[in-house]
Amino acid sequence: MLTRGHARPDAAAAEADTRTSWCPSGAAHAPESLVLGVRSGLDGQVTYLADAVPAAAVLDQIPEDIEPRRILRFASHCVTDCANRRGGDCTLVERVVAAYPAPAGGAVPRCHLRAGCQWWAQAGVEGCRRCPALATRHPADDELASLVADPDVTPEQLAAWTAAHRD
């Protein structure tokens, strides 16, 4: 049993270091996938669900001609062979923080994923505040979203693109 002020035993420390992290921009059909939230039809922002809902419980309710990622945000386990993975880090959250301004207001959204979220662990408040603006599936004509999704694009390239395309 762990108590305040005492170091964790080595076995507990090793277990904590190897726990599974969650991707808030995950796959819809992975066995562990959860519905993180619903995308608004007005502005595309994600409204987070109060409780986790297994994706398998809702996927068969979505009409075949609708891509689930266009209306729902899914979370699934981070995987080592992900194109956005570099060592233990997620390069997607790095690009998101570089490309998208933090929304006004400063509050982080309520989210049931936070305790295990890779983005929260890696980027903290800065990643979390930008999360509602992201879509796992985005329209092809959204150039910035396409650049952010590309693992080969660096945060510096995103900053240059953003500077060149300011209104």
Give a quick summary of the entry.
The strands form two sheets. A four-stranded antiparallel β-sheet has the order 1-4-2-3.
Notes on the structure:
- It is a single chain.
- The chain is an alpha+beta fold.
- The chain has one domain (21-164).
- The protein contains eight helices and six strands; from the N terminus they run αβββααβββααααα.
- It has helices at 10-17, 56-59, 68-71, 91-99, 118-123, 125-130, 143-149, 155-164, and strands spanning 22-23, 34-39, 46-54, 72-77, 85-86, 89-90.
- The strands form two sheets. It has a four-stranded antiparallel beta sheet.
- Mean pLDDT is 78; it is low at 1-17.
- Write down the secondary-structure element order: HEEEHHEEEHHHHH
Number of domains: 1
Note the overall shape.
globular
Number of helices: 8
Architecture blueprint of SSEs:
Elements: H1 10-17, E1 22-23, E2 34-39, E3 46-54, H2 56-59, H3 68-71, E4 72-77, E5 85-86, E6 89-90, H4 91-99, H5 118-123, H6 125-130, H7 143-149, H8 155-164
Antiparallel strand pairs: 1-4, 2-3, 2-4, 5-6
Helix pairs in contact: 4-8
Keywords, please?
167 residues; alpha+beta; two-stranded antiparallel ribbon; 8 helices; 6 strands; 32% helix; 16% strand; globular
